[in-house]
Design a protein that fits this description.
Two copies of one chain form a homodimer.
Chain A (H helix, E strand, L loop, with lengths): L15 H15 L6 E2 L11 H13 L16 H12 L11 E4 L2 H7 L10 E5 L3 H10 L5 E2 L2 E2 L2 E5 L17 E5 L11 H14 L2 E5 L25 E6 L1 H4 L7 E4 L5 E3 L5 E3 H12 L5 H8 L4 H27 L4 E3 L5 E5 L6 H12 L1 E2 L1 E2 L10 E5 L4 H15 L1
Parallel strand pairs in A: 1-15, 3-6, 3-7, 7-8, 8-9
Antiparallel strand pairs in A: 2-10, 4-5, 9-10, 11-12, 13-14, 14-17, 16-17
């Protein structure tokens, strides 16, 4: 008798975003005359950089001719893209990587979800609270999260982030084996400076922990002294895996490309105490269960690193960050506590008068016809907050802020 | 202290294809004047159908304009492709599917590797011997395969395929929870007719087993009465998941697209005996650990189902099957036992005089300068055989057969 992976039964059936979609759909059906603006889901609205479009058009043509056609590519990605990444995303920050340390994939979500394959399910897991749900859910599926309790999952250590600690997790007092960190942060929009990140690297080295560092939003960093990569911190190559994405950097949410850095010097223990290279394990995992990223997509990603591509990416990020500023200013004028949005495309808003996340969501939807994301959906410490994204069209952001102002006044 | 998934340590460090690549590289370095022809690895050589190229060129353009740009797509794929699949790949065979039963992905290898996520690691696993290595290796990684013994993995049941049983596995005498079947078969090139496949469906229904049916090569079927889908057999929707790929059908090895059918009526047991929908579990898995397939790629796949696309696919498959026939005839003239190649792009050749797979590989490489794949690499019953693929250029196939004839005479 075939049996299921029973860990799935422990997950709630509803996801945050499908619950939001259900509520929005019901509202629209009942109010077909209203123009609902979504500042909820983190999808981009600006088109791809022209450099990427042109490069992909050429790559599509390559596939038509027998002499330029490409079949299976390397599972870990083409050298042309790997070398562009090393040269442009790392060397300028003083980080040297070898091509074997860079793994191209179909996106950071896949890699964040699959990375657990190479780690024992007995490791304890640390996450910020609130947090991107994929980290926790993928650990629930594998059995690593343990069982659901009133205080969350039994094998997950939650690191609360709130106004008191400026939404930055405190260094744990106890030992944690695997720690997920995401900076610039989704959903809270905050960043760590080098000193703050150094404390985490030092903690991991002392505790022989692995940091899974999600840097999907690094391109939104505006200030100096904010690290773009965890490898800007000495020792990080001995304790950290870094995830990067082209989704928000260059509008690749529908094109699917990201990459993961697993340093050659990163090891973890086998049960017999022997140290094992995580780079080799991830390579073996990808060679067994993945067959590389589309050649066309990789050519599109490579083009981001041309002069033309860089300028187009910069323009798009400036566009979104202007949205963020506009929204930040709007909420500040209303006297609402607003966080994030300075080095990240997310704003984290304290609901007025202590009303709950979902109540505020409902009020915004019904009274201002604006969709946000309830903070509680990202974890218990998100209660009393909502997340807004800066990825919308400018005119939608402006219109949304106008309505919110009218409604809140 | 972070610890690794120790199951990785049980895998051999060398993969079949990297060992082949190493030997070929060494030979070429020592014999730079020789023109080595590869009939080894299963990659295609013909370019994409023009219909797909044109559709992808248009899709790339869509991504340049703010009004036609596409961000995140549905995790399970766009309706335009799902509906084309149902209409063209299933309805003509009398199979009705709902869109929720079709999951688009970046390829059958990913899906075959990841499907284990939704099943308990305590299930027993049945595979043919020889077999595509991904099935076994992905079970080793998850711990489901058990431990390595002299007779193979302790929790894997091997179903030998040899000349005696016409390379078709016998229905097991004992109970197996999960059974991998691949027809048309890689590496042996054989097929099952409807009666033979019905026996497997009946076995699975009686034993409450799940069949993981890899139909990646169905487009190569030439004869009537050979099922293209397991769902042509009554009852299969209650016991089987089917994997399909555009890689070999339409040259998508470098573009990455496949799909998996998980019927709504397919269930398996939870530990408490309750029946759980595998469709819901796979949907949850994909929503958590995958973010959809490239929009551009999906438009390219959709175009395969246009009249122009179908004709181009047919021409390419005819080209490869002519290669297969040419190779089959060549070996038959030499008095060599040759199997497959009639409804599949693979030929399975008995080595002459009972010499070993690797010895024959070495001789072919050194004396005819032709690369094949040693059968032993696919499992113990592959000893004494080599696999040849029909995916080469015509002139290479002809030249390879000329050399093989000269060498063997």
């Amino acid at each position: 008798m075939a049996t299921i992976n029973e860990n799935f039964l422990k997950l709630f059936n509803n996801y945050l975003f499908s619950e939001i979609a259900r509520k929005v759909k019901a509202f629209k059906e009942n109010h077909p005359d209203r123009n609902v603006i979504s500042l909820g889901i983190g999808d981009v609205t600006q088109p791809l950089p022209k450099a990427s479009v042109d490069a992909m058009a050429r790559a599509v043509k390559d596939m038509e001719n027998i002499t330029t056609f490409r079949g299976y590519g390397p599972e870990h990605g083409y050298d042309f893209l790997i070398n562009a990444i090393i040269k442009n995303d790392y060397l300028p920050h003083g980080i040297e990587l070898s091509p074997s340390e860079v793994f191209i994939s179909d996106g950071a979500k896949s890699d964040c979800g699959n990375i657990g394959d190479i780690l024992s399910i007995n490791n304890s897991v640390g996450v910020t609270d609130p947090v991107y749900p994929v980290y926790v859910d993928s650990n629930v599926i594998s059995g690593r999260a343990g069982n659901r309790t009133n205080a969350g999952w039994s094998n997950v250590i939650y690191m609360p982030c709130n106004a008191e600690n400026h939404f930055k997790p405190r260094i744990p007092q106890r030992h944690i084996d695997i720690i997920y960190l995401c900076f610039p942060n989704n959903p809270m929009g905050v960043v760590l400076n080098k000193e703050e990140l150094r404390e985490w690297v030092d903690y991991a080295l002392e505790n022989d922990s692995i940091i899974l560092y999600d840097a999907a939003y690094e391109a939104y960093i505006q200030e100096e002294d904010i690290p773009h990569s965890i490898y800007e911190i000495a020792g990080a190559k001995e304790c950290a895996i870094e995830f990067r994405s082209f989704s928000k950097t260059a509008g690749f949410t529908g094109v699917r490309c990201g990459y993961t850095i697993v340093p050659e010097s990163l090891t973890a223990s086998a049960p017999d105490g022997r140290r094992v290279s995580l780079n080799q394990l991830w390579n073996r995992r990808q060679c067994t269960k993945f067959n590389g990223t589309s050649y066309i997509t990789q050519r599109g990603a490579e083009a981001i690193y041309t002069e033309q591509g860089k300028e187009q990416v910069r323009n798009t990020i400036n566009y979104y960050m202007t949205n963020a500023m506009l929204m930040r200013n709007g909420f500040e004028e209303l006297g609402v506590h607003v966080y994030g949005g300075e080095n990240a495309p997310y704003l984290w808003i304290k609901t007025p008068d202590g009303i709950s996340s979902w109540n505020f969501f409902d009020q915004m939807l019904h009274e201002a016809n604006v969709v946000v994301t309830p903070g509680i959906g990202f974890g218990p410490s998100g209660e009393g907050y909502v997340r807004l994204t800066a990825f919308g069209h400018r005119e939608d952001c402006e219109e949304a802020m106008k309505r919110i102002k009218q409604w809140m006044n």
